[in-house]
Predict the structure.
Amino acid sequence: MDNRRVIGSWLSGPRAALEEAGADFGYRGEQLGLPEQGPNSIARPGRRLGALAVDWGLCVLIAYSLITHGYSPATSNWALVVFAALSALTVGTVGFTPGKRLFGLRVLDLRTGTVNPLRALLRTFLLCLAVPALIWDRDGRGLHDRLAKTVEVRI
């Protein structure tokens, strides 16, 4: 019976095992003072990935039709440039990209509520590197959000 518990904790992950042992992690965003659910709660990974897919698709379409005039090996490179420009400009001004708006998400500065254009530029640069966005903290924020002192929330 004890072996099953050990295997079960391995399958469910270290967080579940620690919670079973009595550790209280709280909900995502609690340490940041955000609500557990509803508006201004931490955006879930599914919505974030959906918004990213919409934004990337839009940027590929722009690169394909306006810049390279058809498919070429450079299309994906141009799509990344268009994505960086779209993300930095829209997040730095209105707080969301077209994909984020479609999925009901917004990027906020933790202190002021609005994202400074320089922070949006830093966040976009780190997002384009991809690796910082794949490293998440306990609250579900990517390393790119932590370093830019931003958070992606539901509208």
In short: The first strand starts at residue 105 and ends at 109.
